[in-house]
Description:
By secondary structure, the chain is α+β, with helices and mostly antiparallel strands. It has helices at about 20-30, 60-65, 85-90, 100-115, 120-125, 135-149; strands at about 1-5, 10-15, 45-50, 55, 70. Helices cover about 35% and strands about 15% of the residues. One FE2/S2 (inorganic) cluster binds near residues 96 and 99.
Amino acid sequence: xxxxxxxxxxxxxxxxxxxxLLWAIRExxxxxGTKYGCGIAxxxxxxxxxxxxxxxxxxxxxxxxxxxxxxxxxGLAVNGMLNKIQxxxxxxxxxxxxxxxxxxxxxxxxxxxSKPKPTDADIDSAMTNICRCGxxxxxxxAIHAAAKA
Length: 149
Ligand code: FES
Ligand code: FES
């Protein structure tokens, strides 16, 4: 049994503590916006925030997430209001197939929270997420636009 605080709500779930957080979020809690890509912390599709920091939930055991505040893509908008990264994503039509995009948005949101005016170098070092559709240029433009908003 584990208690996870996700998007401000506690969830008591019956799960092995070694289970990757990604699967608890998707299978036990039913929040499927966080995606599975590689399973080895390389692609970033599974990115969520833990106490505000971006983490790759495919390699994070549930036991390490207990007692932390977890935010998923479903928890970013407050009272239906998109955050500025989400708005910039829409304005710049960033997504193509969309599969990697929740992880991208979580990583970009964490970046702007820690560096409100990131340089291209800051973006390159923070945004290590992989996009098979090649949206990297639009991602960069949207982050700069959100930083100015
Ligand atoms: S699925 Fe977690 S980094 Fe790729
Ligand atoms: S938008 Fe298709 S993988 Fe990134």
